[in-house]
Every structure is written in structure tokens, then in C-alpha cells.
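User: Is it possible to get a 3D structure for a protein together with its bound compound? The compound here is nicotinamide-adenine-dinucleotide. I've pasted both below.
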Amino acid sequence: MSYWKDKHILVTGGASFISSHLVDKLVAQGAVVRVADDLSSGTLQNLEQSISQIDFREGDLRDRSFTRDVMQNVEVVFHLAACHGGRGFIDTHPADCASNMVLDGIVFDEALRAGVDRVAFSSSACVYPVTHQIAPVNGNTIYLREAWADPFKEGCAFADGEYGWAKLMGELTLQAYYKQYGLKSVACRFFTAYGERENETHAVIALIAKAFIEMDPYEIWGNGQQDRNFTYVGDIVDGMMLAAEHIEDASPVNIGTAEHIKIIDLVHKIFEITGFQPNELFFDTTKPVGVFSRAADLTEARQHLNWEPQVSVEEGLKRTIEWYYATHDVTTVAEKLGVLLTER
Ligand SMILES: NC(=O)c1ccc[n+]([C@@H]2O[C@H](COP(=O)([O-])OP(=O)(O)OC[C@H]3O[C@@H](n4cnc5c(N)ncnc54)[C@H](O)[C@@H]3O)[C@@H](O)[C@H]2O)c1
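Assistant: Yes, that's possible. Here is the predicted structure of the complex:
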């Protein structure tokens, strides 16, 4: 029997890209699911599959009375609500990202007061020191290890922007609540998720959208040499559910692949699958691109969760492109692309 059967779960931000997939999976495994979301970027459409089987509450979790209310009779909190987006969003909305510290603080405090059994937090690879996310040194690429981001260790706190710092402070808060009150939790450090329901502020969807509207010259932010470990959303959800089940001491765990994929190689895979081939590529080096290189070390995830990403980037891209092409309209995307790339 599934660990989740009949468990009372709260998913914060449950109408979002990743969270809605989590909600679908929890419902499928027999959990009793409540979603709290202010729909600032999430949509009810994302929850279409499960909406009739969940308790959906609309509200802002920075409002303590709303949060106190939605925590009632909850055993496990999956906290994924955040002001967040891809690089085009987080670099242009620093104050919004910093406000996540208020949001996380209230959610964790109300979880403690309500006596929930455990909290699983969607942290991020952005907690890692940017100094570790550089071009390969002597040909050796770097795999980020959990111990390298730690506010209590000298040299281990140099997060990626306001968004990364807020996630690191969210982790620190959970560690403090575990030390002082024994509140069980885990911080899941997600890496570069992609898949169905994601928006165009994230690189994979932005690049698919540009192929969809047949942009030519085809614009790529940066010189195309940066790499990321693109991780399919279904794998992220599986990893987070296992982490919530198996880690209780507020430790962080990486949920992402150990594969470095250059943006230019991702672009060629997208051209191959969509059949679109522009005459010219235009590398816009004035646009935000984030750190140079990012992939996860999976030692902890393998050891504690027996988890490993299952979906190859080719397969994940195929599914995502199929979904994007079936659910979007060329004229609308072409008209709004400028806004879509930076506003969630
Ligand atoms: N997508 C990624 O690659 C990635 C990587 C690392 C971490 N994460 C984290 O995973 C989580 C989910 O990511 P996503 O891409 O699905 O994010 P998203 O931005 O689409 O989702 C955030 C959700 O929270 C809701 N929300 C925001 N502020 C709220 C508030 N004050 N009260 C109530 N609801 C609120 C939004 O409406 C939305 O549904 C986020 O915490 C994000 O920081 C995502």
C-alpha cells in the first residue's frame, strides 16, 4: 500500500507547474489533498485532472489567518508556493523573490502550531555558491554536493541572487525549527525542472516557444555554451515524495540529474524534434543567463531515497513539445513573446 494512502496533505502553491503534477500523483495514490494558492502564477487549468477530488482554497499564504486555516487537520505539508520564475523573471524581480522569506517563515511557523507531522520544502539549486558553478576547470565539470551550501560553514553561503538567498534562509529556518522543536522536514533542492505546464520564463519552454513561432533569426540568450541538468517534472515529483517519506532531520537533498547539457545542444535537440530549422542563430549576450554550469551530485539522493531520474532529456523534450504544440496558439505566442519571457 502506498505511504500516501489516506494521508492528509496540504500542497502550497499547488496550482503551479511542478506542484500540480505533485497533486495529481498524490491524488492517484489515495491521499486526501488540500491546495492553497493565490493563483498569482498558478492556474486552475493546471489542476484540471484533480480539481474534483481536492479541497482547493484560494488565498495569499502571507496572510497568517489564511495559512492557519488551511493547516487544520494536515499531516504533511508540501511547501512549493513561491514568487518564482525562470532567469528572465528572477533577475528582474529581486524584491518579489526576497518576499519569499516572509512567505516561508509564516508557512513553517503555522505548520508547527498546527502540529503537522512533517514539511517538505521546494528549495533550489540556486542555494549553491555561484563560485562553484563555473566553466569546467582542466576539463573537469562540477557536480554540486549538498554540503557545499550551508549558512553555518565558512565559504558555503554565496547563493544565486535574492531568490537563492531566500531559499537558503528557508532551509535555515527549517533546520532551526527541527533543532528547537523537533519539527520534521526535508529541503528538496530542485534543479532546472521542465515539462508540461511550465511557462516561457524558463529556458526549455522559451526555446520551444521560439521554434513554435518559427523565429528566424532564432534568438538564444547568452552564447549557448552555458549548461544545465534539465530534469523532467515527473522525476522531480517522485524525488520529492520519496524525500518527504524518508528524510526527517531538515537535511537538504538534490533532486536533479547529474548530466550537463549545453544550451546549444538543447536547441539542436528541439530543432530535431520539432522539425523547425532556422536560417540563422542570434546569440543575445546582453540577456540574463545565470551561472555558467549546473548539475547535481546524486550520492545523497541514491543513498537515502534510492532515487534516480528516469526520463531522458530526449523523451522529456518530446512530451513537452507535444504538449506545448497541442495547447498553444502561434499568433498569440508570437504577439506576446516579449512579455512571456520575463513575466510569469
Ligand atoms: N521550476 C523550477 O525549475 C524550479 C527549480 C527550483 C525550485 N523550484 C521551486 O519549486 C516550486 C514550484 O515551482 P514552479 O516552477 O511550479 O513555480 P511557480 O512559480 O509556477 O509556482 C508557485 C506557485 O505558488 C503560488 N503562489 C505564489 N505566491 C503565493 C502566495 N503568497 N500565496 C499563495 N500562493 C502563492 C503561485 O500562484 C504558483 O501556483 C517553487 O517553490 C520554486 O521556487 C522550481
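DSSP finds twelve helices and 13 strands in the chain. The CA atoms of residues 72 and 169 lie 25 Å apart.
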